Amino acid sequence: MASTTLKEEFEIKIAPAPALRVIGMKIRSSLEFASRDCPKLWQESFAPRMTEVVGFNGAAYGVSVMIDCETMTFDYLAAVSAAPDAAVPSGMEAMSLSGGTYAQCKVESLAKVSAAYKFVYGPWLEAQSRWELDLSAPCYEFYPAEYMENNIFYIYVKVNEKK
Predict the structure, then answer these.
(1) CA distance 18 to 97
(2) 101: which of 14, 15, 37, 136 is 20 to 30 A away, CA to CA?
C-alpha cells in the first residue's frame, strides 16, 4: 500500500485492517490528563487482569473514542482481542472495531505516542489529497506480542478516500 513520510518523523502506511472484537477496561480522560490516566489504567487495573480474557495472545489494544471535541474528552479502553463469543469478565467490557482502510503509523517508543498522534492528525492529515478521516470509527493503538521486547507499536486511524 501507499507510504508517506513527512519530515521523516513518522512513517504512515495506508493499509487494510480486519474487524475485531476487543475486551478490556475503560476510563474517561482528556488530552490534558491522558499521559497520567492511560498508563495508570494499563499498569494498575488492566494488565494484572488481561489474561482473564479467553484467547489472550500477548497482543493488546488501546482504543480511543472521542466524546467531546471541544473539551478533548475521550473514552480509552485498554484491551486485548477476543473471539466473538468470548465471555466478558466482571469489570470489563467488549467493543467491536470495524475493519477497513486505516492510516497505520509506526511508533518506536511509548514516549513518542503524543507526538505520533499530533503528527497523524496534523501535518500528515493536512498533506492528504486522497485520504480523509473516518470520524465514525475509533482510533486505536496496536501493541504486538513482541512490544515488551522492542517498544514498537502502531496507531491506526480509519480513513476514506476523498470524493
Answers:
(1) 8
(2) 37
110-119 pLDDT tens trace: 999 989 998 9
Give the pLDDT band (50/70/90) at residue 163. confident
Report the mean per-residue pLDDT for the chain.
91
- Across-strand partners of 76? 27, 64
Q: Which three cell numbers stand for residue 130?
A: 486522497
- CA-CA distance, 75 to 27, in Å (whole number)? 6
CB contact at 8 A, 159 and 99: no
| pLDDT tens digits for range 1-41 | 444 444 447 999 999 999 999 999 999 999 889 999 999 99
72 sits in the region (left: phi over 0; alpha: psi -120 to 50; else beta) called: left
The 10 Å Cβ neighbour count of residue 4 is 15
Q: Between 151 and 69, whose confidence is greater?
A: 151
